[in-house]
Amino acid sequence: MSVRIHLRDHPHRAIALVSSSHVLVFRHSPTSTESIPSASVQSFQSHSSNQSPAAPRCIVEFSRLDSINLGDYRSLSTLPVKGTLGLITVNNDVFLCVVSAATRVATVRPGETVQRIDSVEFHCINSSDYDHVLNDEINPYSTDNLSQQDGFDYEPNQTRREGVVEHPCLALKKLLSGGTFYYSTDFDLTNRLQDRPIDASTFDLNSFDDGFLWNSYMIQPLINFRSHLGSHEKEALDASQILTSAIRGFVATMPIAAPISPARGTALSGLPSTLTVISRLSCRRAGTRFNARGIDDDGNVANFVETETIFWTPSGLCFSYAQVRGSVPIFWEQATGLLPGQQKIQITRSPEATQPAFDKHFESLEVDFGSIHILNLLSKDKAGEVEISERYRYHVRHSMLNNSVEKGTSGAFELLKLTEFDFHAETRGPTGYEAASIIKQIIRESAESFAFYLTEEVDHPSEELHPGAVGQDRPVSRKATVVLQQEGVFRTNCLDCLDRTNLIQTIVSQMALEAFLGQRNERARQDFWLRHSSLWADNGDALSRIYAGTGALKSSFTRSGKMSFAGALADARKSATRLYINNFTDKTRQYTMDLLLGRLMGQAPVRLYDPINDYVNSELNKRALEYSASRVINIWIGTFNVNGQSEGTSEDLSAWLYPTSEISNQQPEIYVVGFQEIVELSPQQIMSTDPGRRLLWEQAVQDTLNERADSDKYVLLRSGQLVGAALSIFVKSSVLGDIKNVEGDVKKTGMSGMAGNKGAVAIRLDFANTRLCFVTAHLAAGFANYEERNRDYRTISHSIRFQRNRSIDDHDTIIWLGDFNYRIGLSDEKARKLINAGDLNTLYDNDQLNIQMVKGNAFRFYSEKPPAFMPTYKYDRGTDTYDTSEKARIPAWCDRVLWRGDNLRQTSYNAAPLRFSDHRPVYATFQCTVNVVDESYKENLSRQIYEKRRADVAGLTANTDLDDTDEEEDLIGYDAISSGLPPASSDTRKWWLDNGMYAVGNLRYTFTRLKFSPFFICLSSFLIAARSLLRERQHPRP
What we know:
Blueprint: E1 4-8, E2 14-18, E3 22-29, H1 42-47, E4 57-64, E5 74-75, E6 83-90, E7 93-109, E8 112-124, H2 170-176, E9 181-183, H3 216-227, H4 231-240, E10 246-256, H5 266-269, E11 273-281, E12 305-312, E13 318-325, E14 332-334, E15 345-347, H6 351-369, E16 371-376, H7 383-397, H8 400-403, E17 416-420, H9 423-426, H10 439-450, E18 453-461, E19 476-484, E20 488-493, H11 499-519, H12 526-547, H13 555-560, H14 565-584, H15 586-597, E21 607-609, H16 611-622, H17 624-627, E22 628-641, H18 654-657, H19 661-666, E23 670-676, H20 692-708, E24 714-722, E25 725-732, E26 739-750, E27 755-767, E28 770-778, H21 786-799, E29 813-819, H22 828-837, H23 840-845, H24 848-855, E30 895-900, E31 904-911, E32 922-933, H25 935-952, H26 969-972, E33 1001-1004, E34 1009-1012, H27 1014-1034
Parallel strand pairs: 4-21, 13-20, 16-17, 16-20, 22-23, 28-29
Antiparallel strand pairs: 1-2, 1-5, 2-3, 3-4, 6-7, 7-8, 8-9, 9-10, 10-11, 11-12, 12-13, 13-18, 14-15, 18-19, 22-32, 23-25, 24-25, 26-27, 27-28, 29-30, 31-32, 33-34
Helix pairs in contact: 10-11, 11-12, 16-25
């Protein structure tokens, strides 16, 4: 979408970004924050609680194009801009950064394009001093060798040279225009394919990964502003594509002609496939080669890059494989030097002080990727690299991830594995770098277990929302379906994580592609692999230029598979250039990166406020009862570990689903049914999911429900399965219109995340305007493994993600159900005696889950009604007798229902007498108050409040004239500190005078205009009267 940039010079400077339908206007606010009572300014409380009081402020307004008069504006550029990267402050001047030129460099999938930023411009919002300084359209020069004469000598507190106006953003412009920044207006470029919703047609700015968002500091004020807009304004702002989110690294697509493509069927269609490489460089420990090494206390490492290889075919297949690289995650430094031997490595912290940061780093990787296989390519001969490797081994051995692996698992399921591969020693022989390919044999087992991410477009019958459709009447749509997920990641490093690392990652990427093609009985031709190698060579060069200042060494071999004499000479030249850049220019490059990321001492972010919209939102909240109402619905929750018994599908389930006449008559609107162990958890079963058993159980449940239902039948809304765990939601057909945004996700926790014998299935939905989330979980088994169960809960709670990056906690109502496997901490003999005596209170006092919840170690802030039924595990099948086998397991309440939400009221909690499993099924019923909003009425009310407020402030917005800066107070909107109190006063408005109107008396003369406050007039009168009274007392009249 085209965006134009306009400027208004008088009477007050303002900049407008104009789309085809809307306008985003910025105007600097010179009013100091000290002049405004902070307790009464609603806008500032939400934007600046952690910011410096002196932070520059701007008024911002987003409006429809037809409501803004652009007659006083002039165009700043003959060409449209691509969007804005945000706002930044330099030397107390506020600059708006816009993308002025960009080139399309990649098409990942149809409709998903990536643009490379070629040029940016910085426009000052509060001053015209720089309007004609930085007006070159595109920077034609490389940013690899920037020096002080290029503008990097500017410091925030440095005064401008007399007679010469030097643009303070020159260095930032050259950095951002250097061809290393990318953005997309079609999809979330900060997340890999596997972490993006498969069926999302749009993306939310709030779901972006801040770790890869390089303009996060500049764009955050605008993201905060966006969050306070109404839903329609927010959608309009997103549709305008004004806000741009950029990553740094490398992105490129290479089309694969049909005759060359290894994918079956492309030759017949004649359409090309695409091969794409995306590298995302983290900004959390960003820096140049000798300025950023090792790890920080938050677990972030230098030169951390996530690289994704994507292969798409016209038939709808899409392959994705991700790898990461990053500096060795310990605290170490390396000094610069003009000779290689002078670059001494120093480890700066003890092992004990390093381990917490080390664990943070790998725990974060484990959450994102699962198992981690480290490929350490450091030398075994160089003293500094040997010392780092020794420390690396120490921390891997002492990692909490390795200590958390389930007992009895084989090495194939290690959560953190280390392979040391001395790259230089292995490639020293006559075959040279070709010998590096022997690493394939070393890592093949992990590569096969990690698999890859694969989606395929298939025809889907849309049966969930069309319960009456049968057979060929069902509508069919072509949708992408997840076939396989990547379950682990290779983390590769050398010293710089550039040259050696890139060559090995190229080999790993090829292995993953070969595995994908091999499963389909396909093979790639040499031409295909040459294109693959060329993309990876370009990737290595780009990442090397960012970190070290030159292209990658060994790129000649990566590109062609051979090391030529010319390539060796090129490597020597690059090494010499690196020495110069690292010693003489890296300091200024580091400074510019820190400026961009907002990490300089004393650097303050820009603060935005939109007074009218803030006021409207505040008023809407106060008047919520006018456009919203509440409604009570009934929800039935049930969980059942069926112990792999398929014959239960033929049993009568009504004792569980309709246990009382009240529930039968009540006909709950929602039935949430969770199963565990619907298949036998054999070694073959736990690695895959067979939906056959789930379908049988769903049919059995639905048949039982509809046997007693009236004409309003139950339909299956959505279901999900993870090996033996399944979650199915049935709703009455009459409430389908109230339900939207139904989404699901799963998380494996068995065998350290490798297997699905343990884990969770989650489904969320919106019922009217209330967000509900249901989670069924099967946690770690074993009497003493309550800490592992706690860890499983935390992993599930943190890892489950729905569209727009919503987590479990981002819901109004949350209900967990399942076999949580918490036991009763008593001996078998004592537990059975208490059961026989009916002393459930003592049993509950010793229940592991109850104890862990009280301590805050698991399910914090959740509630459970104390069980008034006997422990549900473990029975002899077909009887009411607890376990009589040799193991004699202690009876326990393994099967539970927990909930959280102020809108929930639990009405029952019990077990049902179904005896075909060694567990008893458990159920709970709830009354849930949902919020129903009349969106049409709310929209009309919002428009009325907006227009009235606009009239009250006489149109004083970012786009209009202000005669006096003090009058800006009237834009902000003052609220009462507490209910029942009047709104706070200001220097110009007093609530006790004239109904809050102006409290300033104006005396007009022909030559001046004076202002007197009535307060001072009254005070003067009082002092005069007091003085007269005192004189009379001192000198009384006769």
